[in-house]
Amino acid sequence: MSKKKFSKIKEQVTKFLRKNRWTLARIGIAAAAVVILPDSVSYAQSGATDDTISVLTQPLSRMESLMSGPVPKAIVTIGAAIGAASWALNVENVRLVQQ
Question: pTM of the entire structure?
Fold first, then answer.
C-alpha cells in the first residue's frame, strides 16, 4: 500500500473516531461493565434454582392444551387446504387483473 493511500485511510479513520467519540466511549463503558461485574449481578439472577417463569408458563401451557385437540387440527387442515387451493388457482392475481 502506498504512503498516500495509507495517509488517506488514516485520515478517514481519525475523522470517524473524532466524530463518534462519545458513542464509542459509551460502548466501551458498557463493555467494561459487563466484563467487570460479577455474574450474579450482570445476569440478574436472584439465586432461584427454577428457570421457569410461572406467569408465562401457565397461560402458555393452557393455550397449548386448547390448541392440541381434534377441532383445532381440523380447522388448521381446512385453512391449509383453502390456502393451497387459492395459491394453486392463482385467485389473488385473477382479482387484480379483473379490476
Answer: 0.35
Instruction: Enumerate the domain spans of the chain.
Output: 1-41, 66-99
Q: DSSP labels for 8-59?
A: HHHHHHHHHHHHTHHHHHHHHHHHHHHHHS-HHHHTT--S-S----HHHHHH
**What are 41-85's pLDDT values in tens digits?**
545 555 555 566 667 777 777 777 777 778 888 888 898 898 888
* Residue for grid cell 388457482: 89
pLDDT digits (tens, 9 = 90+) for 18-28: 999 999 999 99
Contact yes or no for 24/17 (Cβ under 8 A): yes
